[in-house]
Amino acid sequence: MSQQSDKPKIRHLPNWIFASRWLQLPLYLGLILAQGVYVVHFWVELAHLVQAALGNPEALQLVFAATGQHAAGPAPTHLTETTIMLVVLGLIDVVMISNLLIMVIIGGYETFVSRMNLENHPDQPEWLSHVNASVLKVKLATAIIGISSIHLLKTFINAENYSEKVLISQTVIHIVFLLSALAIAATDRLLGKPPEH
Question: What is the pLDDT of residue 197?
Fold first, then answer.
């Protein structure tokens, strides 16, 4: 008799556990707000670059400060090719992080919260049709390597403003990211293989 009275209580527990996936919704909404902050940051940096190119001294100082260049002696009066390259790489970095956010928001929501039912939508991302936790991990690891590559390139272009220790550390960190992504992809491939008969 006690077992029968306990069954209705336990029967609702899996439904509550399954419904707890909706607790992730505020996290994805927060990432959308973070994406908005990146959009604002992108346009502010681009506006500074355009103003500096037009000769605005305040924007020029902001650009030099943002790129980590330490101008020795008098204040710079114009943009250099290196400075433009560093700013553009910074903008590319923002775009790549924004792409990473989109992958996490859309892929994570689709995988862990609820289906979006975008099968007939003309703008459905190609990768969303076959996304799962394993595919998402590999795509995120690849995106992180791309972001790390941009950071490393920015450091090497501006190498005279960094110590040898910083250069070596960033290179080692990038190699660790690369090896981690390869390990994730190899593990995913091994686990995804059908058993041989």
Answer: 46
> How many degrees, rounded to 5, is the angle at CA 137 between CA 110 and CA 183?
165
Q: How far apart are CA 97 and CA 85, in angstroms?
A: 18
pLDDT for the residue numbered 27: 94
Write a three-state SS string for 52-68: HHCCCHHHHHHHHHHCC
Instruction: Please name which of 23, 17, 27 lies closest in space to residue 101, comparing C-alpha atoms.
Output: 27
**Residue count of the chain:** 197
Residue 162's SS3 state is coil
pTM: 0.75
Q: Sign of the C-alpha dihedral, residues 171, 34, 96, 145?
A: positive
Residue pointed to by tokens 């990432």: 31
- 10 against 51, higher pLDDT: 51
181 or 6: which leads in pLDDT: 181
Burial of 97 from C-beta contacts in 10 A (0-12 / 13-18 / 19+): buried
Most distant pair of Cα atoms in the chain: their distance: 89
User: Own/partner pairs for 59-65, CB < 8 Å, 24+ apart?
Assistant: 63/87
Residue type for 80, please? T
Termini Cα distance of the chain: 48
122 — pLDDT class (breaks 50, 70, 90): confident
